[in-house]
Amino acid sequence: MKLLSALGSSEAGSRSPAAPVPPGSPPWQDAAAEQSTGRERFASLVQRQGVLAVLVLVVVVSSFVYPTFATMDNARGVTVQASFLAIVALGMTLVIITGGIDLSVGSVFALGGVLAAWASQWGILPALLVPLAVCGAIGALNGLLIARAGLAPFIVTLASLLAARGLLLAITDEGATTYLVPKESAFAHVGQGSIWGFGYPILIAAVLFGAGGLVLQRTSFGQTLFAVGGSADAATLMGLPVARAKVMVYLLSGLLAGLAGAINAARLSSGVTIIGVGMELDAISAVVIGGTLLIGGAGSVSGTLWGVLLLAVIQNLINQIGSLNSSYQSVVSGGFLIVVVVAQRYLARSRRTT
């Protein structure tokens, strides 16, 4: 049995097809089957692309209400700011598709930035390789404890959150030392340079999301992730490498969080110690708002990208209003998250009844 035929080739995960109608059935049965299939397709489309429609609507309305919102400079600022969360959320998407969770990404993001700034004095390669090695090791350890030892993802990654933050404080003497990135260095150019007006962080995020989409859509590894999230026991019976897949997604999550932190350090020209607090919650919110199910088995990187951009646009609108502080972003993001979770639950019920 081929893996793609067993799991389905859709990026959003497998879904049960409508029951076939026997030949010669009455016309009303054919109509009911077509209606059931159409309803299931609509529910799947809303789950995967509903956030894009909301994003477009918010952008269009905001462009008319606030003239400064629709400027190219504002668009560049929003996308650059969102690119770091997007890279972190990409790794979170892979983890959640398998039915897991990674609470350590915020602390790993901050740790990656500090390590990159510290190593930047020896050149661009150490500035990139040191955070990737350390943050990747943290992710791999998370995956081994979860996949091989059978520990709960929530507990393991919560412990990693505390450990990564503690390591960061130890390196910086409880935050008293701030490592600076040498000005005009090649590493600083990674975070501050641009091509055709688009900053390197935007381009890096775009390349990573393109690669992530191809992995989920076109590779057996991507389909294995959906199978593991749908039912790890069934995936094991099919002979799929369940443990290896889980280790890999946590490893990738750690690597991406460390990379995002390193690029952010290059942009800020320093390893800031107080960033990343609560970033794991923003990443989870973006992933869920983008249509990925928290229970696993369904999701897409494109939906995550729209979710990240929607949160960034909301933050920018709060800044445009001026009379509201940034705390309202959490209120709006929480409201969006509740609405999306309720909608996902309703769509799941409607698809089960078709």
Give keywords.
single chain, 354 residues, mainly alpha, two-stranded antiparallel sheet, globular
User: What is the radius of gyration computed over CA atoms, rounded to a whole number of angstroms?
Assistant: 22 Å
Order of helices and strands: HHHHHHHEEHHHHHHH
Helix count from the secondary structure assignment: 14
**What low-confidence regions span 5 or more consecutive residues with pLDDT below 50?**
1-25, 28-33
User: What characterizes the major β-sheet?
Assistant: 2 strands, antiparallel
Count of extended strands: 2
Helical percentage: over 70%
Strand content: under 5%
From the spread of the alpha carbons, the general shape counts as globular
The largest sheet has its strands arranged as 1-2
Rounded average pLDDT: 82
Distance between the ends: 27 Å
Which structural class best describes the helix and strand composition?
mainly alpha
Briefly characterize the structure.
The chain is mostly helical. The protein has helices spanning 3-7, 27-65, 72-97, 105-119, 124-147, 153-171, 186-192, 200-218, 220-230, 232-237, 242-268, 279-289, 301-321, 327-352, and strands at residues 194-195, 198-199.
